[in-house]
Amino acid sequence: xxxxxxxxGLAAARHIAVDLTPQAIEQIAGRVAQLLxxxxxxxxxxxxxxxxWMTVKELAHHLKLNPAWxxxxxxxxxxxxxGTGPKxxxxxxxxxATEALKRQQRPAAAVSPRRKSPQPTPYPTSAPLLEIRxxxxxxxxxxx
Length: 144
What we know:
The protein is mainly alpha-helical. The protein contains seven helices and three strands; from the N terminus they run ααβααββααα.
């Protein structure tokens, strides 16, 4: 087949498209789609983040918090109990916990209020202090 020149390019392209069978067009379209998928993988779209369940220790480590604080604020962080007893294990969804922490944050102005200057004490500073006695003298045994 002769190579189309610039002047006759559209006419040649129309002629080639007419000569292709529907099966050949389907094969070409499939191959083009395959090449495009290989070059540009589809973006990972998830409507809602998949829950990432974490223990108290894991959540505290991930958020750089004290585990005791996480236990104290478990209800606010969206804790899920995995049992019914008094010592039932607690699990947290990472996304829910981070969203709860964001809601708790206050504006910077409200976080650190200005401190008042210290007031003078009404007591005289030259008051005599009581004598401190050693434990043995008071009758208390030292802890060992």
